[in-house]
Design goal:
By secondary structure, the chain is mostly helical. The protein contains 5 helices and 2 strands, in the order ααααββα. Strand 1 and strand 2 form a beta hairpin. It is elongated, with a radius of gyration of 16 Å. The relative contact order is 0.16.
Length: 109
């Protein structure tokens, strides 16, 4: 992942509605969500939701798949993992380590 890819991803997430959408899709997992479900659960109007989904798709953070008449959006977990790996690439003074829990403490630091 390049620095510009990371900037694009973080830029897309640096807006409250897009962050909420992305987090909802992460929680939904591989099943994903339709725009209708996202709009309903987050209280976002469909016109604004469409714009935010486009921005997240352009940043590579979500994917879109057609299922009959419905569009299903899913978090792109591989991209999320690549962004996190890029951000933590040189943590712990360059020593290999793993995140041990949600508090982002590194082992061996």
């Amino acid at each position: 992942m390049t620095e510009s890819d990371v900037v694009r991803a973080l830029g897309a997430l640096a807006q409250q509605s897009r962050l909420q959408i992305f987090r909802a899709l992460v929680v939904a997992g591989e099943g994903g969500l339709t725009p209708g479900r996202l709009s309903e659960s987050l209280g976002l109007p469909s016109t604004g939701l469409s714009f935010h989904l486009k921005e997240l798709t352009h940043a590579g953070l979500i994917t879109q798949e057609r299922d009959g008449r419905h569009l299903i959006y899913r978090a792109a977990f591989s991209t999320m993992d690549e962004v996190l790996a890029y951000l933590t690439q040189n943590c712990c003074a360059g020593q290999p380590c793993e995140l041990t829990d949600r508090t982002a403490t590194c082992e061996g630091c």
